């Protein structure tokens, strides 16, 4: 076991604070990573504040991890000390079910999340990337092929990147498609960049007037402020696919009205309380579908990282010290970040 400095909380109502945690000595198939940067996902806020059921404390969030390999177990084949690597939302799964077999560990019933998941390691649940080091089975470690100078901006790809890439691929978004991305936060801004790189025409939907110009700069062909009914109406029945990343419950009907016949809206946002049910006639009259998607499997995460390296795609980030995390959470809740906070975990020392 080794002692590691981390940032986390002892209760849902408590601010995050410095914590001392332990990591296991690498086992035969484990990779030990010195974490350089960790992105700040809205799921971290939902989980650490007990907005979702079942948060275990102490809670150390963080599942957008990048760094360098600092040790490997004797059975590790794919990684060496010094390699640039990433870890996303998954650190274990059953490895035997049909989902694991298909490389869709994200849908395994026994998937272990990077934090708040079951583990024999102390304290009995996994602790995430707001920390100096992590030890992970090599199956769940990703190779980073971007330049090292991009490393901080690669971190958000490990969750925000794969969570938007996977549904865009699953619903076969590409040239000739009109795609709506709703909510221009960490996930949404990656959704715009990835859908553009896949060849689609992208319409961004935001509640924030201040993001109108900024979303164009990300590559959106058009930006709609969704509070403006006339702007929404101008896009009626024009979209093939909508990726909805919003972190709060809201009325889905105005967005369904923008889908063509057979259009699909996929929810990736995971608010603590449900959205109001969409109007049935809004679905049946145009054979529209409502779907959901959760992160992505390990092979697809590697594919996404390689796609981003090839296309020069990284996240737009604002770097913070670990001790700025509580302020960063408040700013995210206000929608005041363009577009992802990334913790320089070296400031934990
Ligand atoms: P984020 O950076 O905070 O962005 C969320 C965006 O949603 C905001 O920037 C804002 O965009 C919009 N929004 C927030 N509150 C809103 C409100 N009350 N009304 C309307 N719009 C609102 O969050 P994120 O990290 O991208 O995560 C987004 C959601 O996805 C979270 O619920 C998170 O837990 C979930 N998530 C799911 C998965 C998955 O596997 N399915 C993975 C990661 C995260 P505008 O300012 O543009 O309106
Ligand atoms: Zn996340």
List keywords for this structure.
single chain; 349 residues; alpha/beta; 7-stranded mixed sheet; 6-stranded parallel sheet; 11 helices; 17 strands; globular; binds NADP nicotinamide-adenine-dinucleotide phosphate; binds zinc ion
List the helices and strands and how they pair.
Blueprint: E1 2-8, E2 17-23, E3 30-39, H1 42-48, E4 65-72, E5 84-87, E6 90-92, H2 98-101, E7 112-113, E8 133-137, E9 142-143, H3 151-154, H4 160-170, E10 178-182, H5 186-197, E11 201-206, H6 212-217, E12 222-225, H7 229-233, E13 239-244, H8 253-256, E14 259-267, H9 280-284, E15 289-292, H10 298-311, E16 317-320, H11 325-333, E17 340-344
Parallel strand pairs: 10-11, 10-13, 11-12, 13-14, 14-15, 16-17
Antiparallel strand pairs: 1-2, 3-4, 3-8, 3-17, 4-5, 5-9, 6-7
Helix pairs in contact: 4-5, 4-10
This protein binds NADP nicotinamide-adenine-dinucleotide phosphate and zinc ion.
NADP nicotinamide-adenine-dinucleotide phosphate binds next to helix 1, helix 4 and helix 5.
């Amino acid at each position: 076991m080794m002692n590691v400095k981390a940032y986390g909380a002892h209760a849902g109502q408590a601010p995050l604070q410095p914590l001392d945690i332990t990591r296991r000595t690498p086992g035969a198939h484990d990779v030990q990573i010195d974490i350089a940067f960790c992105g700040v996902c809205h799921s971290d806020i939902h989980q650490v504040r007990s907005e979702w059921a079942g948060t275990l404390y102490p809670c150390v969030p963080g599942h957008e991890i990048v760094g360098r390999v600092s040790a490997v177990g004797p059975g590790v084949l794919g990684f060496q000390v010094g390699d640039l690597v990433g870890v996303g939302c998954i650190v274990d799964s059953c490895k035997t079910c049909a989902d694991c077999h298909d490389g869709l560990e994200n849908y395994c019933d026994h998937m272990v999340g990077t934090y708040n998941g079951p583990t024999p390691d102390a304290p009995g649940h996994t602790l995430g990337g707001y920390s100096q080091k992590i030890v992970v089975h090599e199956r769940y470690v990703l190779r980073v092929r971007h330049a090292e100078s991009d490393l901080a901006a690669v971190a958000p790809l490990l969750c925000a990147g794969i969570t938007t890439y996977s549904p865009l691929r699953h619903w076969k978004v590409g040239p000739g498609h009109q795609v709506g991305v709703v909510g221009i936060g960490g996930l949404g801004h990656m959704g715009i960049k990835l859908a553009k790189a896949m060849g689609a025409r992208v319409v961004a939907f935001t509640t924030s007037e201040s993001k109108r110009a900024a979303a164009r700069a990300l590559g959106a062909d058009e930006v709609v402020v969704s509070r403006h009914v006339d702007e929404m109406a101008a896009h009626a029945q024009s979209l093939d696919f909508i990726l909805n990343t919003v972190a709060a419950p809201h009325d889905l009907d105005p967005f369904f009205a923008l889908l063509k016949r057979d259009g699909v809206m996929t929810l990736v946002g995971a608010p603590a309380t449900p959205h109001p049910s969409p109007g049935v006639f809004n679905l049946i009259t145009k054979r529209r579908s409502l779907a959901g998607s959760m992160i992505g499997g390990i092979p697809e995460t590697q594919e996404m990282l390689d796609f981003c390296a090839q296309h020069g795609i990284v996240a737009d980030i604002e770097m913070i010290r670990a001790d700025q995390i509580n302020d960063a959470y408040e700013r995210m809740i206000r929608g005041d970040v363009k577009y992802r906070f990334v913790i320089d975990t070296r400031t934990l020392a």
